[in-house]
# Entry
Amino acid sequence: MLNCTNCKTPLNNAAANTRSLVACAACSSLLRVDVFPAINRSLPVGRTGAALEVDKEAGCFYHPRKKATVPCAACGRFLCALCDVSLNGQHMCPACFEKGKTHHKIKNLENHRTCYDSVALMVATVSILIYWFTIFTAPIVIYLTVRHWNTPSSIIPRTKIRFIIAFVIAGAQIAGWILFFSKLVLST
Amino acid sequence: MANKVKEYKKLPGSKKGFLIGKYTLWQGADHLLHIFSRFGVEDYKRFYFSDIQAIITRKTIVGKIQNIILGCLILLFLLPAYIFDGGWSLLYVGGSAMMFIFLLINLYIGPTCETTLMTAVQTEKLQSLHRLNNSCRVMDRLRLQIQQAQGVLTPNDLTSIPLRPAGRNPSQGPPEATVLAKEAAGLVNGRAHMILFILLLVNGVLATSEFFISHVFSTVLSSVASLGIGIFVIISLVRQHNSNLPGSLRTITWASLGFVGVTFIMGYIVVMVFAFKNPAIAYNQWEVAKAISNLSPWDSPLKLTYNIIILGGAFFLGIPGLIIHQRTSSRANKPASVMSAASGRKVASRAPEPG
# Structure
């Protein structure tokens, strides 16, 4: 079902895949509609495990009375069709799947990351605006850099340049404060 | 040493979120990765090529409106630059030149658009594809990738596109009553927004009137309108949370909050400067207010700047806000009338995305 994204009126199928802007019949909005075969495909129906017919057949680890169809790629346990979680061509049991998700071992399941290199750089640069604040922020930046040097950053591969710049700025700030206090001590 | 294969390729286009954040789109081996990053935190959404049903790009008039506003701002800045001499004139010329550069950039990057991606279970707006040129370029690239994963859609397949969204058969998903109840939960009539935009326009008109009439009454009215804007911007922000109001309306409401902050700071500066210049009346608030009211914007570059910011900001936010609000309200009333007019014709539609 294709609707105009402006007025929600159903679109004429002739408007699809023209690779140019076509006016909506109802609201005259100019639309480019790219449609793919998945539009005619229905969602696969959920599977249930088949019951064991012969005692010699392998059973599922979690449901011993159900027929095993595939082993878990991580732990090797036998799984029935119900327990089989398929991801990127691999079959996993729900426990390994959950473990992979919570331990960030399955990259494709991650939908949130904290990039400490960006945080360190931001803290190092923004604090310059209120310069006296750097007495607190500079050690924080140094800590973030050292503590999270090996922590995975963005999912898009990036260099350590942010950490390096943040470290240099924070180092300069600390050096500045040391200079300031040493002068203060010497003058008094 | 073997070359490291890049897992993701950056696709053209990016969009800065309002005040914070940035949206980008990346092409992976078997999926699209939509990233929203702000303050060192990244949120990811993946759209697998094999699941994408359609991508719809709609040309919008946002770019044209931006050009008109920038053109108006250039004229607005040129007028005082012509009237004043010295530093103030240079300041306004600088402002005007900056607006002109923005206008040229906006013209260069081309018309705006809204790109929506559909799968069997979701309809997502691709925020980074908000320029038509970029969107078309990306679509030409993605089309090949998606066709590799799904095959090619023949003209015969096109005619058999189902009336009901593919992948959702009647037995699956929540019943219609549940969906309607969920929609109703986020339904907001936007009356607070309407009052906010009307107050903004009133404030703009009052700021304009000060160019011709300098009277304390006008200042009092303007203060009342500003207070009302402050109150209604908070009410609107509370109401729009988790509502079904369009993103543009939400953005304008947030921008109104920024406008309130800026005008408050500017107003404070004007009063402080005036008090320093007139120490005799500095401790009498009423006398200060009266004196500022009687001061024409044409006599004080600072007050002129203040008034220009108020009238520019008020009209810049009030007019589009009111237009979008009216359009949203008329669209919300439309389905009922369409359904009653088209008797017996069943119109299937996709449930709106939450948030």
